[in-house]
Amino acid sequence: MLILTCPCCGMTGEETEFHAGGEAHLQRFGPGSTEDQFEEYLFMRENPKGVHFERWRHVNGCGKWFHAARSTTTLEVYGTYAAQTHEPPQTLRDKITAKVPGWTWREFQ
Fold first, then answer.
1. What does the UniProt keyword field contain (predicted)?
2. Which CATH number covers residue 83?
3. Phi, psi (degrees; rounded to nearest 5) at 13
4. Burial call 34-56: b when 16+ CB within 10 Å, e when fewer
5. Which residue, of 38, 75, 78, 86, has the fewest CB within 10 Å?
6. What is the C-alpha to C-alpha distance for residues 52 and 5, in angstroms, rounded to an integer?
7. Pairing mode of beta strands 51-57, 65-71
8. Residue 45 in contact with residue 97, Cβ under 8 Å?
9. CB 62, CB 6: distance < 8 Å
10. What phi and psi, each to the nearest 5 degrees, are found at residue 67?
């Protein structure tokens, strides 16, 4: 079971208190985009074995969205951070690198 801490209100709880919202840091395309860009936005998702960044919502708490970094193999949560950031904080990336040398995810490492 995942144990997550909401960075917005500071509450820690089991994953049943939260709702997963899919992959984090997607570049969204709308009107004026090419068909290839829109197809990539709709269908192309990372499905890594290892480090993954996801969106979560604290449904039984403050109701706000945030991002979480976790391992898909061990379910270890490396950390959570505000959804308004465009990339994972450097401190979190350093923490992941210390535990998983050589990891990559999209353009982040």
1. Oxidoreductase
2. 3.30.2270.10
3. -160, 175
4. eeeeeeeeeeeeeeeeebbbbbb
5. 86
6. 17
7. antiparallel
8. no
9. yes
10. -110, 150
Q: Which residues contact 97 (CB under 8 A, 6 or more apart)?
A: 103, 109
CB atoms inside a 10 Å sphere around CB 19? 13
How far lies 29's CA from each of 26, 34, 38, 83, in Å? 9, 9, 6, 18
Give SS3 for 58: coil
Flag whether 107 is in a domain.
no
Domain span holding position 56: 3-99
Strands 12-14 vs 3-5: parallel, antiparallel or unpaired:
antiparallel
pTM summary value: 0.87
Number of domains into which the chain is organized: 1
| 45 within a domain of the structure (yes/no) | yes
- Residue 69 lies inside a defined structural domain of this protein: yes
CB 67 within 8 A of CB 53: yes
Q: Residue 52 is inside which H or E element, if any?
A: strand 51-57
